[in-house]
Amino acid sequence: xxxxxxxxxxxxxxxxxxxxxxxxxxxxxxxxxxxxxxxxxxxxxxxxxxxxxxxxxxxxxxxxxxxxxxxxxxxxxxxxxxxxxxxxxxxxxxxxxxxxxxxxxxxxxxxxxxxxxxxxxxxxxxxxxxx
Length: 131
What we know:
InterPro entries: DUF1236. There is one protein chain. The chain has helices spanning about 1-25, 30-55, 65-70, and strands spanning about 100, 110, 115-120, 125-130. It is of the alpha+beta class. A four-stranded antiparallel beta sheet has the order 1-2-3-4, with helices on one face. Helix 1 packs across helix 2. The protein is about 45% helix and about 15% strand.
């Protein structure tokens, strides 16, 4: 009888965790840790944080037409140099001006440290560095 009750409670936790994960705006390590803690306690939080951190850093590449546009658009006349390393998944410094891609407003670009980068406009997060 106790095993059946534990199974029912575990099923309810998994179902509520799925709903939480779908409706939550917390992603990455924090989201994984929160979800893992609900399901598996402290050990679940540790594992969920690692898995969520890896999944949260994966970013879908932009469409090829966006990459081609950013490759071919003339570079601005003024060179932009920053000390920070440009890293996929990290936002560009606030001092860098980003320009929307005309045919696809989900993307913007900048030329920083002689590198062309595609970013997500609202967060300024780097999606791709074009080599």
